[in-house]
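Allow me, if you will, to draw on your knowledge of protein folds for a short while. A protein sequence and the structure tokens that stand for its backbone fold form the material at issue. I would ask you to consider whether the tokens describe a fold that such a sequence might reasonably adopt. Thank you for your consideration; the sequence and its tokens are set out here:
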Amino acid sequence: MNVKTMEGLAGAGVNLKNSGTSYRVYHAAKIEADLAEIKGEAANTDVMERALGYTNGFLEDASEYTDRAAEGTREEAEKLREERLEDAREKARERAENRKEEEAARAEKAKAEKAGTDKAAGTGTDGLAENSESILKNQSIATGATVELSAEGQKLSDAMKGISRQTE
């Protein structure tokens, strides 16, 4: 609770209580004045006027404190509204960041999948035959060993070369 609100509520409560006391004094003085008039004596109105002055002053003070409490309540409501607005903006920023991260992850995954399918589709049988021959040649050059293909291996290699030339 805002300090202005607490001060306003406490001040208004005290002043209303005090105005009730001074009003009771006024009421008692009025009764005495009425009795004096009935008896034919002069009525003393000074006490009534003074008590009404106090009552009026306390009520004005209570009104000022009520205004202060209302101002404090408005400030508190504005502060709360701004905090909620900032929280909503922060949540929106977080959602946007999460959305961007998810989209980037999806794009990366799609890119990886596309690269994987392109690689698999692009190499095909002709790429395997050429790749295996180059590996064998590189190994034989590096080690100084000669590699001989078996008859079945030679037939398979020739068949794959033929398939790759037909697809081109």
About this structure: Residues 53 and 79 are 39 Å apart (CA to CA). The mean pLDDT is 82. The chain has three helices and no strands.
